[in-house]
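note to self — DONT lose this again. spent like an hour looking for the file last time. sequence + predicted structure for the chain T wanted, 106 res
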Amino acid sequence: MEQRDYVRRLLEVYCATPGTCGAVRRPDRLLAAQLYQRGVPLEAVENALTLAAARRLARPADAPPLGIIRSLAYFSPVIEEVMSLPVSPEYFRYLRHRIATCTSAN
């Protein structure tokens, strides 16, 4: 995959992630390009966005609301975490299903 396609796909997934503002800024594009240059698999970034979104949605109902995510950099620690996790792809499919269920119920 070429860098242009990687960055485009990553930013599409980022904008579609629950809790994000849905806007892409220049620093987001730069971070996406850096991730490509580092050789971070797109799947790992997608899984990190999924994991972070699931964690945010799994909060107690009486917890104060979280702010909107305005930067791809918010996900940087989770991307690093996912890169070191020995988790099967089925777990992330499960999380995607749970997120879709939660967001469609709202």
